[in-house]
Amino acid sequence: MPPLNKHKFAINLAAVLFFFCILSVHAAPENTIVYATRTGKAYHREDCSALSRSKEAITLGEAARRSLSACSLCQPPLLNAGAAAKIARSTDAGIYRVNIENVNSYKNADTQKMLRARVSRHIDGDTVELEFAAPPAGFNRAEKIRMIGVDTPETVHPQKDVEFFGREASDFTKKMLLGKDVYVALDWDTRDKYGRLLVYIYTAQGVCHNAELIRQGYAHAYTRFPFRFMDEFRILEQEARAKKRGLWEY
Question: How many CB atoms lie within 10 A of CB 68?
Answer without folding.
Answer: 20
